[in-house]
Amino acid sequence: MKKLPALLLAGVAVLAVGAAALVWRLNLRDETAIAAGPPPAASAEQVARGAYLARAGNCMTCHTTRGGTPYAGGLGIDTPFGTVYSSNLTPDEATGLGRWTPDHFWRAMHNGRAADGRLLYPAFPYPNYTQVTRADSDALYAYLRSLPATARPNTPHALRWPFSTQPALAVWRALYFSPGVYETDTAQSAEWNRGAYLVRGLGHCAACHTARNVLGATDDRLDLAGGLIPMQNWYAPSLTSDTEAGLAGWDTPHIVSLLKTGVSPRGSTIGPMAEVVLRSTQYLSDGDLGAMAAFLKSLPPTPAEPAPRSAPPPARVATRGAKLYEQHCVQCHGDTGQGVPGAYPALAGNRAITLDPPANLVQIVLNGGFAPATAGNPRPYGMPPYALVLSDADLAAVLTHVRNAWGNRAPEVTELQVNRYRTTSRQ
């Protein structure tokens, strides 16, 4: 009788493996027609359009190593399941896209498959790119084909088993991915639809601003409602909540300015979003940025949850935090947290200060940070790092102070939280 549980477990394991194999085989069925022969000649206008779209998708950031040839791949992207390495997008025959056709490229964008039919990992955001139109896919392909060919073999992924297997990826896709293209909402304006297309598709904003489950998938029901960016310990705030980063109450020119220059009268970008502005959105047209603003302003607001009642910080923490603020922060941010317009952000009434979790605050004080150096703001003011100046207890105390001074109300930042972010931070 003691063998029965073991036999049951073995049977369940066999069924699980069989189900995974079945799903894998079903996923291997690919009915996309792939045209043979050399690709058609691209016009200069199509190549220029593709270059613009590559900026909109921020493609070069992931497909270029530091100091490496643009788009030659090899950048390691850390995930909770191991490291995925970006591929070579130059037109090299042996190691890049030289043998790919426009149909191959469309299949990768739309259905997450390589030229040989292999399933791609969603670190390449095809769950978002699937909404890209065929015309835009062809323009991107034309641009990438125009680049100088660089012979750089693709680096094998370093993923843990079973995440390293195609059957496991097939199961993930069966659960969380359905190919599709952007469908115009006829009840909305052309501008709104353009913004929605950019935000949901090439912009892949949901890849950061939507929470992920234990298998790394986003939930459409929580689209753009905020989430912790895996492996980076930055919180991408909700774009639907007025208490986080909702834009419904912003003027359109302020949103455009934020995406174009990294700063606006209502706030500034820092951390991963500063990189997005630096490498992507600053190059978009004012018309496209205005369209994105129109869409973001229209997002249905997330119902505000009652703020949790947080006890006042312990007196010793409050006293210590106030003293540290006076020593290190008051010169820039002011004795009442008022900041300096155009230079140092106000801390009083700043919703970025009271975000929960406090990951971004800890990151900024530990490692410093600047708004991006853009054409519209070439010399941004920044925050120096304090990782070697403040202990975990010091940093927790000063952040607790600013989160509970000048009308701010937020839970205490603990020493344990600071230590966790410090020891797991990846820049």
UniProtKB/TrEMBL annotation:
Residues bound to heme c 2: C205, C208, H209
Lineage: superkingdom: Bacteria
InterPro entries cross-referenced by the UniProt entry: Cyt_c-like_dom, Cyt_c-like_dom_sf, Cytochrome_c-type_DH, Membr-bd_ADH_cyt_c
Obligatory cofactor(s): heme c
Domain Cytochrome c: residue ranges: 45-148, 190-300, 316-406
Keyword Transport annotated: no
Positions that bind heme c 3: C329, C332, H333
PROSITE patterns attached to this UniProt entry: CYTC
Keywords on record: Heme, Iron, Metal-binding
Pfam families: Cytochrom_C
Gene Ontology molecular-function annotations: electron transfer activity; heme binding; iron ion binding; oxidoreductase activity, acting on CH-OH group of donors
Note on cofactor: Binds 3 heme c groups covalently per subunit.
Residues binding heme c 1, per UniProt: C59, C62, H63
GO cellular component terms, semicolon-separated: membrane
Protein name: Cytochrome c
